[in-house]
Amino acid sequence: MHNHITDTTSAFGAGLAANRRIFTVPAGKYAGRMALLLQTAPAVAQLSWADYPYTEWSDPVNIVTDGADFPFDAVMDENGHIHLAWTRTGDHHLIYRRLLFSSGSWSVETTVTICDTYECFYPSLALETEPERLWVSWSRLEADQYAIRVKSSDDPGTAWGAGPDDPGDEIVAGVDPAFSKMIIMASYVYVVYSANGNLLACRRKHTGAAIWQDETEIAAGSALDHDFTAAVAGDNRLGVVFDDDRMRYREFDGLTWSGVADIDDNGGTSPQLIYLDNNPHVIYLAPGDPARVPLRLCRRSGQAFAAPENLDPRRTTLARVLGYHALTAEFADLTAAAADNTPGDLFHPQSSALLKDTGDMLYLGLDEKFDYLKILLSVPGTIGSLVWQYHNSAGWIGFTPHGGDCHLHQADRELLLWDDYHSLPADWQKTTIAGSRLFWIRAVVITPFDTGPTGTQITSLSNVESIIIMES
Length: 472
Known about the structure:
Layout: E1 22-24, E2 34-41, E3 44-50, E4 61-64, E5 73-76, E6 82-87, E7 94-102, E8 105-115, E9 119-128, E10 133-142, E11 145-153, E12 169-175, E13 178-185, E14 188-195, E15 199-206, E16 216-220, E17 228-232, E18 238-243, E19 247-252, E20 261-264, E21 269-276, E22 279-285, E23 295-301, E24 304-305, E25 309-310, E26 320-325, E27 330-333, H1 335-339, E28 361-366, E29 372-379, E30 385-391, E31 396-399, E32 412-416, E33 431-433, E34 436-447, E35 454-459
Antiparallel strand pairs: 1-2, 2-3, 3-4, 5-6, 6-7, 7-8, 9-10, 10-11, 11-12, 13-14, 14-15, 15-16, 17-18, 18-19, 19-20, 21-22, 22-23, 23-24, 23-25, 26-27, 26-28, 28-34, 29-32, 29-35, 30-31, 30-34, 33-34
């Protein structure tokens, strides 16, 4: 599933790795209805929803209009109500709101101030069900350093602790930076947090107790920031996945912590953790050059993690890239040159350009239908113009890319061919070009170039900045 729902100008459109943004109604007439919360502008958060098979989404509606440009967090309860915490613009106080679910839609209720002392950032919510109690942890800026604080609400949400001026329980103080995630497991509430960039740790307390247990170190390193998350398996194991220049995993069974398991020696960002059949599955953004960021999946079966694999087969290096020189009717295989980022190595040897004269063509093929291209040119073209085409059972069909005309006049272009996966042409068919049967598109020169473009890289990998998945 790949839908374009809306755009964002926020610095944290999808939030941090530890945030929750997407939920399904658990029961009742509207069971399975999916709600997605989006930070679409620095001050604005919106909600959009869809029913199975989740191909048609509602127009986004405002749920927050006074937010600061910092990430928010949310949880859904068993009735489909959504609980939301965010940093308010201006004073940077920590604010709470419930989105009431009734008759299939969500309505915005009044706000409640969680904390109005100092500046508050990066909230994380957790919901205890028996008794129903909301928990929130956050980073509070105190004298140019951060403290991680925790408060709870028994209503839930109507009042927090002893009131807005109650600073809550201190988990750790005097650190910079500081990020946290709250988790409920069995009869304990956990705060997993990173501090000073060199420590990942947790503290816990029994839900009926007043005192938090001492800090337990999960990992020590030099690059421990907000790129961590945690989740609970069905058999009550707390798993934590984190990046410290390597993607790593550790878990706690309620008594002891396991050793550290390496997932990807190359590291990654925005890690997400879910359990399927009680086996951890880690989804993350693998490191890449600025033009391409692979979305990877790594799963554990038995005692070891398998090798990471691409989660989306459409977001990858192109299976084949061919240049066609019209005057000599010669193909040139440019696949390797398109995949790397060596400046200026992407050209047809007959013209010393990707494309130059009328009838020259650039063929781009993949095993799956694809909707996006990242195009880097070392020398942009001038004067010339192109038409873009895909192949159906009858021949080549012209189309205008959803992202607008593209004549290879720009050095760096992210070209959206179609709006999303559901917009891909139904009649697009595989065809064989130069011995390769693939889904092909091609660019054809209709006006000759004065200066023919020379390329550095062409790929269907996009520059994804962050991801949020739905917890199972």
